[in-house]
Amino acid sequence: METVHCLEKLPNSILNRIIDYLPQQDKLNLLYTNYQFYLNVQPLLYKNLLFTKATELKCPHTFDESLYTIVGVLNSPLATDELNNKIYDARQKILLEALTINTELCKYIENIIIEGDYHNDDYIDEIEDVISSDLLNFLMKNCLNLKRISTFNISNFNCIIPQLTNIQLKSLDQFDKILNSKVKELHFDSLNNNSINMDKFNDTDIISLFNQLDTLTFNSEISQAIILKKLNKIISESNIKHAFTFKNLKLVCYHLFDDPTNQVCSFLKNIDFTKLKKFELVLGCDDMTCNCLNNFIKFLTNQNLNLNSLSLVQKTAHREHNYTEIFDFHITELIKQYPKKENLKTLSIRHAPPNDFNVGDGFEGNYLHRKTLYESIIPLLTGLEKLICPTFLQSISGYEQMISNLLWNGCDCEHCTDYLPIFDQYILRHQYYDEVKSRMTDMISPILFGNVGRVLSSRLEEECDMFLDTIPPLNRYWNFHSSSYQITHMENCHIDKSAFPPIAICVAHFLQEYVDSIGSMIPGLQRCVLSGVFFDRVSSEESSKNWYCSDS
To answer: CA end-to-end span of the chain, whole Å?
Structure first.
């Protein structure tokens, strides 16, 4: 039998699978090689497009870079916003010209993500800030195989066209437009209009819509309450046993004023849990004396759950340690009591630390108590392959004694020895507006590293944690002065975005000890992501270290 020694001799079915795993630049390099590769690469290069004023984060031991072709900016923290905008506009114009001249390319485009830039002062981009209207309109009109247009960090943009199978609904006013559509993935974002009367829609059409869904997500407890109330009413009045077959589901169970537990549980009773593979829960209760979360956890553990991915998100209006510890207690109990935990492959836990990282009762002993809770359940997750904690560094920043260890008792390597004194000087020469005290006060390490953690975490998309492995992580930079509160300096400050990669390395060295500990408790763990810093386990043959870090 003849041995195949080159790509050209491989069957197209095999060749295309190989090309699909190549990073964007490698796809382009192969495309320029000869006409055969040109034909093979084109469909895969244009299939998934990501528009963003950022660049992909390099994780060479994974295939994250192969997920999407990125139309972005320069990969340098030294590039000015003006230069990046010129580059970004030029790349959009070139793409539009290419699609206009060669309309055959349009048929290859199936998935589009438009991701707004991250702003540490909480500003949200408009759609016009991220993609030109000419290009967007052209894509919507001419890409007949387009299945998905997803937007993240974008305000007030809604796209509903007939061929889309993925819809992000921004207003219930448009609910009638998706009835009798082909939609398979329905996302209810924080809606602009929640006053609509759902009774005006036909019950059969509503049930048919939700029956055909593979994915259903809610990002707002208000929109969820409206939809679930209607669905529960239809099902209860029909007196027919019902079972939705969602593969991916995100629900909000947050007790602020009204307790949603009964409504959510009634809805979950009509789901075929054997089909559910990814489950995300936003949990919280702002009443210390309430037992709603405990009851909800008991309900869940009695269901026939067999998940591949579980995402748990904290929601609270409070900043005290006690509320976070209660959340930790409930989710660790959920994991302990979950009967098929050995089948769980991905676990994501996102906390809600205050923006100024001023946690009430943020003492070292309380931190250690929370740490002990997690150490009790991590070894139980014997089948876990991915652990994602998007707010890990921000949570530690709420305990000043612990985060100060990073700055003053941290890593002794050459890099940290050179850079940590610079960031120590940054703290000495800056102030921030303390919202609790209502005045400017001296900078402290929780503010510095908490904001660093926020920016690092923005590499990950926060609207739906269960899909983090389907979107490539992006590089983000911070200028050390923008925030949701005022940060000022006492004299000329020369620290800017160029200092962000060095501090990210210092953070990665600080986190390494946690990753080593977690990895020893879960021998099969392949990836650990803490506040946007990626650690991928490598074999001893590839490296003398156990983990490759994105910020090494």
So the answer is: 45
For the chain, give percent helix, strand, coil, nearest 5. Answer: 45, 15, 40
For the chain, count helices (H), then strands (E). Answer: 17, 20
Integer-rounded Cα Rg, in Å, for the chain is: 24
Q: What is the pTM of this model?
A: 0.94
| Cα dihedral 312, 313, 318, 323 in deg (nearest 10) | 10
Give, for 91, the enclosing helix (H) or strand (E). helix 81-101
What is the distance between the alpha carbons of residues 177 and 439, in angstroms, rounded to a whole number?
A: 50
Choose among 425, 430, 444, 414: nearest CA to 505: 414
Which of 264, 190, 186 lies closest to 225, judged by CA?
A: 264
Task: Round to whole Å and give the CA distance between 254 and 261.
Answer: 8
C-alpha 231/C-alpha 508 separation (Å) is: 46
Backbone angles phi, psi at 513, to 5 degrees: -60, -40
Q: Which residues of 507-546 are buried (b: 16+ CB within 10 A; e: fewer)?
A: bbbbbbebbeebbebbeebbbbbbbbbbbbbbeeeeeeee
Q: Is the pLDDT of residue 176 over 90?
A: no
Q: Are 496 and 480 in contact (CB under 8 A)?
A: yes
Token couple for 153: 């960090």
Closest C-alpha to 483, from 508, 506, 438, 450: 450
Q: How far apart are CA 258 and CA 260, in angstroms?
A: 6
148/132 Cα distance (integer angstroms): 18
Q: How far apart are CA 10 and CA 18, in angstroms?
A: 10
The confidence score (pLDDT) of residue 1 equals 44
Do residues 188 and 169 lie in contact, with contact meaning Cβ atoms separated by under 8 Å? yes
pLDDT at 543 over 80: no
Q: Which of 51-65, 107-121, 157-171, 302-316 has the lowest mean pLDDT?
A: 157-171
Per-residue model confidence (pLDDT) at position 475: 95
Residue type at position 475:
N
- Rounded CA-CA distance 195/172 in Å is 8
Indicate the SS3 state at residue 525: coil
Burial class (CB in 10 A: 0-12, 13-18, 19+), 3: exposed
Whole-number Cα distances in Å, 184 to 98, 120, 148: 31, 34, 10
Where b means 16+ CB within 10 Å and e means fewer, 140-169 reads eeebeebbbbbbbbbeebbbeeeebbbbbb
DSSP-assigned letter for residue 118: P
Q: Where are the domains of the chain?
A: 1-157, 385-552
pLDDT tens per residue, range 377-404: 999 999 999 999 999 999 999 999 999 9
135 pLDDT tier (thresholds 50, 70, 90): very high
